[in-house]
Amino acid sequence: MVRRATSLANLDLNLLVILRELLRERNVTRAARQVGITQPAASAALGRLRRHFGDELLERTRGGFVLTPLGAQLATQIETVCAGVERLFSTDPAFRPEDSEREFVVLMPDYVLAALGEGLSRVMHGEAPGTRLHIKVVHEAMPSDLLETLRVIDGIVSVPMPRFQVTGIRALELFRDRWVCVVSADNPVGDSLELADLERLPWVVPHHPDGEYPATSPLAPLFARLSARPQVAVRVDSYQATPYFVAGTGRVAVMQRRLALRFADRPDLRVLECPGDPPPIVETLWWHAKNDEDDAHTWFRSMVARAAKDDCASGDR
């Protein structure tokens, strides 16, 4: 079907809002709730949109509604279009950090929080004291749908995972770290560890599920180098809590160097090099492409990068 160009004057731009929610939610009732209209009104809007595009946009299946190919194409465009319209009609289009009261929401593991949380707080307060931070800490695992999560928050700090490699997610490397081992000061192991020691000693492992260690874990490459599955003595949902379950025991923990160095002055702990040459830790900021041209978000990304750079400078001294 050949479609004619449509004049902007003939469009009901209110349909943009409901179209965005329909494509996001893939459910008429939930889309109506998000926009603040009744379900019949949302159904009527969907009918108008279907007539305009000459396409169903949403098709019913046994498992619920799914996007048609055209609906999926529109879903990749609608966020950018709506963000541009919102900026165009904003009463304060220019973002001024010194005057802003915007809240920025970012999800990160507690290890990253320890590494750059204080620095991020300082640089943001120095340049934009009215802005607010909402730090969400990862307790067990990253959200299953990262793209959808990044639609509603400003960013996620995480090591690269295949689930981040999808259209619509952007990335900025923040800093690199390496793995080290932490043992009790009275542990009879010497000043260096071998892979055989990691196979023999009981482990303290953060964010370990009740079962096999996930292949997507940052520690998975090191686990793969071991000839025997290590004995997990303590599972704890916190990187920062890990050393407390090593001190005074025969256990071992593999930790990020920047975090381990925070405990280096404790006389009851020793920090040793990690055997097996595990790959580096690459902490990365991930965000949704819809925020690419958002001046406030661009500023926020620069603050995160600056905090990471300052932490690297202090950590390398």
TrEMBL record:
Residues 11-68 form the HTH lysR-type domain. PROSITE patterns: HTH_LYSR (PS50931). This is LysR family transcriptional regulator. Belongs to the LysR transcriptional regulatory family. GO terms for molecular function: DNA binding; DNA-binding transcription factor activity. InterPro entries: LysR-type_TF, LysR_HTH_N, LysR_subst-bd, WH-like_DNA-bd_sf, WH_DNA-bd_sf, YidZ_PBP2. The keyword Nucleus does not apply. Gene3D superfamilies: Periplasmic binding protein-like II (3.40.190.10), Winged helix-like DNA-binding domain superfamily/Winged helix DNA-binding domain (1.10.10.10). Coiled coil: none annotated. It comes from the Bacteria. Keywords: DNA-binding, Transcription, Transcription regulation. The keyword Ribonucleoprotein does not apply. It holds the Pfam family LysR_substrate.
